[in-house]
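Practice problem: predict the structure.
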Amino acid sequence: MHPSNQTEEALNPDTFELIRERTLDLVASLSAEDCCAQSMPDASPIKWHLAHTTWFFETFILEPFKKDFKPFDPTFKALFNSYYNAIGLQFPRSQRGLLTRPSLQDILEYRKVIDHDLIALRDQMPGESPIPSLITLGLHHEQQHQELILTDIKHLLSMNPQEPVYDPSWEASNPSSAAAPKWISMEEGLETIGYDDDGFSFDNERPCHRVFVEGFEMASRLVSQGEYLAFILDGGYQKPEYWLSEGWQWRQLSGINQPLYWREEKGVWSRFTLRGRQPLVLREPIVHLSYYEADAYARWKGARLPTEAEWEVAMKSAKTHEFEQMTARAWQWTQSSYMPYPGFTLDPSAVGEYNAKFMVNQYVLRGSSLATPKGHTRPTYRNFFPAHTCWQFTGIRLARSLSPVK
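Answer:
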């Protein structure tokens, strides 16, 4: 992951402070106990997120550029290193919940000290310094962790039989579409995808390149909870003909018969949300589906998942206004494997480890979700997760191939 030449966000004197404060706002209602626990290996304790995002600024900006730099705590270098092998050792991800020390209060003090030093360094930086671009990168990195804070605390709270409420107003301002889905056709052609602008982008969005896209059609909106419930009631989880072989094995081993957070009691279906357990809202988009579930549903409907090129072409087309819920509702699985674009180059620094080494055994998701910070999305944004992932706000948009021109 490396930044472009854009430095506007870093040079804005308020952006750094606002994004860092937003992270603290997200955890303000949580207890120290909430912030220490880890519900599964894929998730991280909230206080680890608070420390890691701070570690990023200390490691990649203060350590190389601050005169007379002294680490806040030398042990933090390994404790809060996620997976940067060039930086050194990392504490095992699956054991982060064992870190009862440092305390939450210690980590909040760590944030204050690093913020103070970084702001002082930022305000005295020379015009040609790489610091602005690194700050911009760090802010986008922090926004990614803001989304993870919400998905990780949701999974943790769901494990509690009391089913605690994180935010009583969650989703209250997101009315759902009542319109029946339509199929919107897109003609075949040579298209350009990837980021090609002066603003910020992650390295996996570049370089801009051409792809030939066959004619296709894509659903005007996301699959709803009611539509997915019909799949369940039709025995979709018990019919192997709809499932990829690996997906069927995953379903059998996990014992899954409905989406994550869903529950059926005496014929009444509900789901756990960030405002506690709630009844299904049949016209709201279905979320928290694995790639396996999304693909099985698509097969049941006689459709498929779009490719990431198809999704981006639709997002950039003159027909964009015909598509609903392209962003800010659910990350949308595509059938595209996460791999480098033609001409991709890897940043030689340690920061370059962020994206490239994960380009195997993962699928691309497009759009953004209810948990994505405002402004943290682009038509070219490439999210990615393994096929079994369902604790993120992941959903489905269907696609179908058009008959090729003979």
